[in-house]
Amino acid sequence: MEYSHSDTELIKQPIGYWSWAAYKAVVTRTRAALADIGTTQPQWWVLAQVARADTVKTREEVSRLLQNYLETGPETMESEIDTTVTQGWITEDTEGRLALTAQGRSFYDKAAALQDELWTERHADISDEEYLTTLKVLQRFIHNTGGQAWHH
């Protein structure tokens, strides 16, 4: 791969720009691929939380967990949960407990396979060691600037 600058010049490049550019590229690619199969990234998050849960989760638990992902917000998450119910992928009982339907399981499996393909695409020519170092460095940047971040 050809890089934008020499190593000497890259050291002087702003992390804010490059972390933003990486975010934009990854999220744009992910959202476009999910749109191609008929869903949104927040709907994927909902499906994944319900499909992978060890115990049944309520709407409130899922919404609270996901509302801060990429600054989505509670109103958007509530709407996205509603859409997964309307699509027939998830059911909600009178106590707000969410469950995957058979149609939802099938769609989740399709979306999960796509996410695996996207992960492979993003990680091409990047070793696990490089990836681990990158995440640790980004977390140090967050810490050093007084920010907070968490991902399940």
Structure description:
It comes from Streptomyces justiciae. InterPro entries: WH-like_DNA-bd_sf (IPR036388), WH_DNA-bd_sf (IPR036390). This is MarR family winged helix-turn-helix transcriptional regulator. The protein is mostly helical. It contains seven helices and two strands, in the order αααααββαα. 63% of the residues lie in helices and 4% in strands. It has a two-stranded antiparallel ribbon. The protein starts with 6 loop residues before the first helix and ends in an 8-residue tail after the last helix. The mean pLDDT is 94.
Concise synopsis of the structure shown:
With 152 residues, the chain is mainly alpha-helical. The protein has helices at 7-10, 15-36, 41-51, 59-66, 74-86, 102-122, 128-144, and strands at 90-92, 98-100.
List keywords for this structure.
single chain; 152 residues; mainly alpha; two-stranded antiparallel ribbon; 7 helices; 63% helix; elongated
Write the layout of secondary structure elements.
Blueprint: H1 7-10, H2 15-36, H3 41-51, H4 59-66, H5 74-86, E1 90-92, E2 98-100, H6 102-122, H7 128-144
Antiparallel strand pairs: 1-2
Helix pairs in contact: 2-6, 3-5, 3-6, 4-5
Protein name: MarR family winged helix-turn-helix transcriptional regulator
InterPro entries: WH-like_DNA-bd_sf (IPR036388), WH_DNA-bd_sf (IPR036390)
